[in-house]
Amino acid sequence: MRILITGTTGYIAKRLALRLLEDDHELVCCVRDLERIPDEIENHPNIEYIKVDFLDITGVELPKNIEAAYYLIHSMSSAEGDFNALEQTCAHNFKSLVENTNCEQVIYLSGIVNDQSLSKHLQSRYEVEQTLRSKRYALTTFRAGIIVGSGSASFEIIRDIVEKLPVMVTPKWLNTKSQPIGIRDVLTFLSGGLKKRSLYNKSYDIIGPEVLTYKEMLLQFGEVRGLKRYIWTLPVLTPKLSSYWLYFVTSTSFPLASALVDSMKVEVIGKPSKINAIIGIEPMTYKQAVDLAFQKIQQNAVVSSWKDAVSSGLFRDPLSKHIELPHFGCFKDVRSRKIVDERYTLEKIWSIGGDNGWYSFNWLWRLRGYADKLFGGVGLRRGRTHEDYLEPGDPLDFWRVLFADKEEKRLLLFAEMKLPGEAWLEFKIVKNRLFQRAVFRPKGVWGRLYWYMVLPFHAFVFKGMINALINTK
After folding, report:
1. Do the Cβ atoms of 462 and 333 come closer than 8 Å?
2. CB atoms < 10 A from the CB of 21, how many?
3. Residues 404, 321: contact at Cβ < 8 Å?
4. Which residue among 286, 290, 418, 469 is least packed, with the fewest CB closer than 10 Å?
5. Nearest CA among 129, 130, 50 for reference residue 97
6. What residues contact residue 459 under an 8 Å CB cut-off, 6+ apart?
7. Cα(108)–Cα(449) distance, rounded to whole angstroms?
């Protein structure tokens, strides 16, 4: 089937595209900037990309042979006051373009709108649904509340709050009830509703099995992470003060914080229906969704199955595209240098550790190894399996090799030392330049304190290491 997807660079659309490609569909993906196509799908043979900004469709024409389309455009983080007009413009322009194709069905992911007093954003999404209705195609609307998955705005904000604050004095909207749903279940609804005629011109709330307050979600999130948290709510924080609280505590922007506070004052509880039976799904609990998100994040759980996955042909594109450094909630030390001799640098990278050491301040690396052993870790005693050869799964001192490919000029390590968090170290050569990335995702307050304690040492340890990797003298 030939399917149009909007919002391709967004959180939902990117994951949905991968799901649809697994089902052998052909995709037409709309992007505003052809330079920002997600790596995971950039070179897939079953995707055609169209440059289009739905705020201005002058000169844009969609392929006639589109059979279905997904409308996944939202303006949640836009400046307060203008998002409604923006969303209406986008919806109207999308509708006018799709009506000139052979599209039979449009699927729209909206928000749950059952409360009598809707937030501005939920009201806007409901109005978008009305705008998208057409006599030329059937509209299927799935309405979701909080979506739980690694990388989603709500997930990362909850994570920020839980991992930073062992004790919280919070706004009263944390007592607002919601019905969260896992991202995997959302994708199952979106893909499962495709070309189901019984769903044409109908709307359904898609919900998880539990009704939880935001406070309960924070506490359960902490339980999954093994963090004990204490929360007291105050009835005195105004929406503006609440927005500032969310803005300063988390890494979100102020416009998004304001929009979230506005939405979090509204109960988001779905109406029961037969949609679960129609799609054939039993949505997971909130804790299950959080746990699954961290399984995806940690990546090292995938290590044992990579070789089997490659041999079975699961990955049709380069494996490295499926093995990426985490981004959200992380501290980073990123350095780059121009390479004098690429072959020399690659050999140095592939010989790092063990008897060869880490090329800079080796006594500090040994000291860190002794400290690790003192706390029950592996220390540096494991060394290397081979003198100048590395493959995924190999131990490398207190690291584990996640990815090693000389042709792709990339080595990725995961720390197995005792840490209040998780750490990765990557070496990658791109266009005659070496990139060295140290990434640390802290767990709780102790993780953040640890990062700032070792930060002064990074200035000379990591600087010396990258300089040694390119220095041929």
Report:
1. yes
2. 18
3. no
4. 418
5. 50
6. none
7. 44
Amino acid at site 99: E
Which segments of the chain have a pLDDT < 70?
39-40, 75-82, 236-264, 297-324, 327-328, 378-382, 472-473
Beta-bridge partner residues of 53: 56
SS3 readout for 268-325: ECCCCCCHHHHHCCCCCCHHHHHHHHHHHHHCHHHHHHHHHHHHCCCCCCCHHHHCCC
- How many Å apart are CA 361 and CA 368, to the nearest integer? 11
- Between helix 239-249 and helix 153-164 the angle, nearest 10°, is 80
188, 47 Cβ separation under 8 angstroms: no
Q: pLDDT value at position 472?
A: 65
> Tokens 């204490």 — which residue?
230
368 Cβ contact list (under 8 Å, min separation 6):
398, 417
Taking phi over 0 as left and psi of -120 to 50 as alpha, with beta for the rest, 254 belongs to: alpha
- CATH classification (class only), 304-470: alpha beta
Does domain 2-298 sit in CATH 3.40.50.720?
yes
Alpha carbon dihedral 143, 251, 288, 440, in 10-degree steps, equals: 150
Neighbour count for residue 133 (Cβ, 10 Å)? 14
How far apart, in whole angstroms, are the C-alpha atoms of residue 162 and residue 157?
9
For 413, list phi and psi in degrees, rounded to 5: -120, 150
Q: How far apart are CA 216 and CA 177, in angstroms?
A: 9
Q: Rounded to whole angstroms, how far apart are CA atoms 121 and 399?
A: 46
- What are the pLDDT digits (tens) for 68-108? 999 998 765 444 456 778 889 999 999 999 999 999 999 99
Cα separation, 82 vs 84, in Å, equals: 6
The segment(s) of the chain belonging to CATH 3.30.530.20 are 304-470
Pairing of strands 181-182, 147-148: parallel
User: Which of 323, 390, 324, 392 has its CA nearest to residue 352?
Assistant: 390
For helices 254-264 and 120-132, the axis angle rounded to 10 degrees is 90
Count of CB atoms within 10 A of residue 368's CB? 19
